[in-house]
Amino acid sequence: MTHRWAVSRQLRRLLLLPAARRGPRRRRHRELKRPKKTKRGKSTEFSILADLLPEDMARVKLLHAERMKSEKKRIQKMGLEECQQLLHQCLQREPGLIFDILSHTPDPPPPGPPNPEQLRWCVCRNCKPMPTLLEQKCCGETVNCISMLPHMDLYIVQVGVLRLARRVWNDLRAEMDAQELGESHRQFRYAAYRQFVVWRYGVLGPGNRIVIPSCCVWKIRRKFPDPHENYVGFIPSRV
């Protein structure tokens, strides 16, 4: 009996040995702590500016001031044509910046005595005589005439924009552009009128028409003139 009891005791030890070995491993695994996750945006303390010493920051500011001073001198030496080319490049790359600067330009000097030939119904001084009373409409802006805004050049009379607008319009109405002489400019004017209405007033819908200011009409006509100066006026029933 004593021998059997000793053998059974050894068997129980062998059977319990793997479990005994696994126990400490599991406990050690539980004791391991995972590293805490860092939230996004919390690494600013390791940024470059945080690593710069005060003397380094002073040097950066000095270099920036010297660069600004040299560029101002360079701009002062530019001629009118060079400045205009530079502004055109800025307008192409950052139109929003130019729009913002032009909208905050100082007011022009007060107008002089009225010109006898100036139209009574025009306040922007860019309108021209119109054939009907209905078309004698001004934009109403004494300082920033709508026809002189950069939006007109970028969105209303820009050839690439109007070509795309004509393509969309023709696809919607299942039409084709006419190939007659002078017809291209007429269709460009027609597309520019639609672009202007959508820009200033939104989509009006069928039966709702609005007169475009004379200054803007002639801005479009100067861009796409008729060889015989035969222009169609405002038609209430036309889109």
Automatic annotation (TrEMBL):
InterPro entries attached to this UniProt entry: P2RX7_C (IPR046815)
Q: Pfam family example for this protein?
A: P2RX7_C
What name does this protein carry? P2X purinoreceptor 7 intracellular domain-containing protein
Top-level division of the source organism's lineage: Eukaryota
Q: Where is the P2X purinoreceptor 7 intracellular domain?
A: 97-234
Biased composition regions of type Basic residues, renumbered to the chain: 22-41
PANTHER family attached here? UBIQUITIN-LIKE PROTEASE FAMILY PROFILE DOMAIN-CONTAINING PROTEIN (PTHR36981:SF3), ZGC:195170 (PTHR36981)
Q: Where is this region: Disordered?
A: 20-44
